From TrEMBL:
Coiled-coil region: none
Protein name: Alpha-galactosidase
Gene3D superfamilies: Aldolase class I, alpha-galactosidase from lactobacil brevis, Golgi alpha-mannosidase II
Enzyme Commission code(s) on record: 3.2.1.22
Record-linked Pfam families: Glyco_hydro_36C, Glyco_hydro_36N, Melibiase
Superkingdom of the source species: Bacteria
Stored InterPro entries: Aldolase_TIM, Alpga-gal_N_sf, Alpha-glycosidase_related, GH, Glyco_hydro_36, Glyco_hydro_36_C, Glyco_hydro_36_N, Glyco_hydro_b
Active site positions, chain numbering: 446 (nucleophile), 509 (proton donor)
Binding site for substrate: 172, 334-335, 411, 444-448, 487, 509
């Protein structure tokens, strides 16, 4: 049984395959976290030890590892919930009402002692992925408005000090730069205040006790939210580390009207004592199997880097023909096809096909694309408007603005106030009209600036993103075949909130194949490879100015869902041949890449090899990159993982083919030696011979 309950002791044990998460209600009526770690099958072993006030400065509230601490009473610690009642009371005092449970869910119902405010703690089990999902609902049963100043989705307790904390930092073109830092005393605070993008930090935590890829304890959690989030990690003075995650309380207040209910975004959390690899596998499998659509992702061609805003039907058709010739399956027209869009400062909001660019209409291009047997995709930035647009002229009050302030433009554009019903309808109707008029298979949904001069209502940071999710969900419901790509100036919308709604992540505008290795490596800790869109683009790269051989660029992009973003009309014959071959190779291995298990293989060489393995059933693929050879005669020995000990594997590597047992490949490993700069290769594994 997944949920075990001891009614007398009021103890609840939530169990996945290998993990137990235990909480209970103590004498004081506080919901106390009792355990999070490797499975303990017998709930009877747990007791709730009475906690005594240590001193007047260490009251019981402070020393109790509360499951969901609220602001109120003798609590000075970080809380998850802060409420202002209409009479000015700002002190919350909850009492436990009851629980309800099913085989895979638990609900702990709390209520304020005086005011009829329900606080419900929800837990859901994803058993085979060793993950639990938590969220909180609030229900205002009073006849007054209740103001919520802060509402986090949950708090976790880790019974250790001196942990390592991992997250990413970054900025545009440099997303997913993973960092590790020791957790000492004081607090670590990560957040996003921009409403739109998260190039900077990402809404998750990884806390480990000196874990490695394949061993050691790791506690982790990811928030299903693309908007303003924050997270706090704190090593407390009482010998534990706590971590909280939720909607950022910065510039946030929620008004809960009488009868209204509010649901926080959920956190998907897990524990493993088998290192980072297991954490990634559990999250990847959950993402792939439970959130994402089945089926392999198409190889797309996107015209952005080739044409930028200079879109025209003739050239797009030429690009489409060439893309088809090379092996692409989906042709995506990026920015520049609509309104008077000739640069960043015009056209957003006017979502009609530009007649100068498409004199015979958009269908001319779509028909060509379809007649070649490709799918058709198109770029939108639905939440935005340029001051120079008809939409803005007609609806100047649709943007985020304070009456006495002029709103700031960024990239020459304003953000539409998506929390207004008429704006939400406009965005939905625009997309609905496009999708019902044209045979579109794929929408790249972009958002190229953060929100500013937001709104008088301080919950807009959350409402904006919630309304965005609603729109995309509704569109996907109506247009079942259409896939949606989440993009925000590159990888600004990579999170589990997006993954629940979108199908693809545009990983970064940084398409430099070498920079991408680091970005993709960090990405892989939390997010499934199947959602990681990666393009091959031209050199010198527009951002890094680096020249990298085409084969290396392809190999780097083939690590995710492959896309081509080059100006393929300029490809030489030789480049076109390389592209054709590698696209066709990708087609033969993409089921392993997109649906298989992903391994970050340890590099033991003094050369900086990057080695990644994918494994699905009897087949495997290994990508090996050597960006720069340091000492030419030194190669690397690397050990494969996840193979079957006694099975024989055929290993194809460059022009060689050898046969070895899984045991040998995992223990001795393979010797490789690449030379030169930006060298790379793909190694294939197959055990179907047995
Ligand atoms: C953003 C996206 C790019 C491209 C441009 C178009 O920067 O990340 O891929 O779509 O917008 O303006």
């Amino acid at each position: 049984m997944s949920i075990l309950i001891n009614k007398e002791k009021n103890i609840f044990s939530i169990n996945t395959l290998n993990v137990s998460y235990v909480l209970g209600i103590d004498d004081e009526g506080l919901i106390r976290n009792l355990y999070w770690g490797k499975n303990i099958s017998d709930i009877e072993d747990f007791n709730i030890i009475k906690l005594e006030e240590v001193s007047s400065n260490d009251p019981v509230y402070e020393i109790t590892p509360e499951e969901y601490p609220v602001y109120g009473g003798l609590r000075y610690k970080e809380h998850c919930l802060k409420i202002n009642f209409s009479d000015g009371t700002r002190d919350l005092k909850y009492k436990y009402l009851k629980y309800t449970s099913t085989d895979n869910s638990l609900l702990i119902k709390l209520r304020d002692e005086y005011y009829d405010l329900e606080i419900n703690l929800h837990y859901k089990i994803h058993e085979k992925y060793d993950l639990i999902e938590r969220y909180v609902t609030l229900k205002n049963n009073t006849s007054d408005i209740i103001e919520v100043e802060k509402i986090y989705s949950g708090q976790f307790h880790i019974p250790y000090e001196n942990l390592n904390f991992r997250n990413v930092h970054g900025h545009w073109g440099a997303e997913q730069q993973m960092f590790t830092q020791k957790v000492g005393y004081g607090k670590i605070y990560i957040e996003n205040r921009r409403g739109i993008s998260t190039h900077n930090h990402n809404p998750y935590f990884i806390l480990d006790k000196d874990a490695k890829e394949t061993c050691g304890e790791v506690f982790f959690g990811a928030l299903k939210l693309s908007g303003n989030f924050s997270g706090i990690v704190e090593q407390t003075p009482y010998g534990e580390t706590l971590v909280q995650l939720g909607i950022n309380p910065h510039d946030f207040t929620l008004e809960l009207k009488p009868g209204e209910e509010f649901k926080t975004p959920a956190i998907i959390a897990g524990y493993t004592n088998e290192g980072f690899e297991k954490m990634s596998h559990n999250l990847h499998n959950y993402g792939k199997n439970e959130l994402m659509r089945d089926g392999l992702r198409d190889i797309l061609y996107n015209s952005w880097e080739a044409t930028e805003f200079k879109v025209n039907a003739e050239e797009q058709i030429k690009l489409a023909k060439k893309a088809k010739e090379l092996g692409a399956e989906l042709f995506v027209v990026d920015d520049g096809w609509f309104g008077e869009r000739d640069g960043i400062d015009n056209g957003l909001g006017d979502w009609y096909v530009n007649e100068n660019k498409f004199p015979k209409g958009l269908n001319q291009l779509i028909d060509e694309v379809k007649s070649m047997g490709m799918k058709f995709g198109i770029w939108f930035e639905p939440e935005m408007v340029n001051p120079r647009s008809k939409l803005y002229k007609d609806n100047p009050d649709w943007i985020y603005n304070f009456k006495t302030r002029e709103s700031d433009t960024s990239r020459g554009q304003y953000v539409l106030n998506l929390s207004k019903d008429e704006v939400k309808d406009f965005v939905y109707n625009t997309l609905d009209k496009m999708l019902s008029t044209y045979d579109i298979d794929y929408i790249k949904w972009d958002a190229n600036r953060p929100i500013a001069q937001s709104d008088v209502k301080k919950d807009i940071w959350f409402r904006h993103i919630k309304n965005l999710y609603d729109i995309v969900r509704k569109l996907k419901d109506k247009y079942k075949k259409v896939y949606f790509e989440a993009c925000a100036s590159g990888g600004g919308r990579i999170d589990y909130g997006s993954l629940e709604v979108f199908d693809d992540f545009w990983t970064s505008d940084n398409t430099d194949a070498y920079d991408r290795l680091k970005i993709q490596d960090s990405y892989s800790y939390i997010y499934p490879i199947k959602a990681m869109r990666a393009w091959v683009t031209d050199c010198p790269n527009f951002l890094s100015k680096r020249e990298i051989p085409l084969r290396f660029r392809f190999h780097s992009a083939m690590m995710g869902t492959l896309g081509i973003g080059s100006n393929i009309l300029k490809y030489t014959k030789e480049e076109a041949e390389i592209a054709k071959d590698l696209i066709s190779e990708y087609k033969s291995i993409r089921h392993i890449i997109q649906d298989g298990d992903f391994y970050r293989i340890e590099n033991t060489s003094s050369n900086d090899y990057y080695i990644y393995q994918y494994l699905k059933d009897n087949e495997g693929v290994v990508f090996i990159f050597l960006p720069q050879s340091k000492i030419g005669h030194i190669g690397a020995r690397f050990k494969l993982r996840g193979l079957e000990e006694n099975k024989k594997y055929k290993v194809e590597y460059l022009d060689e083919a050898i046969e070895k047992t899984g045991g040998y490949l995992m223990k001795y490993g393979l010797d490789i030696r690449l030379q030169g700069d930006y060298n790379s290769c793909i190694l294939k594994l197959n055990s179907t011979l047995n």
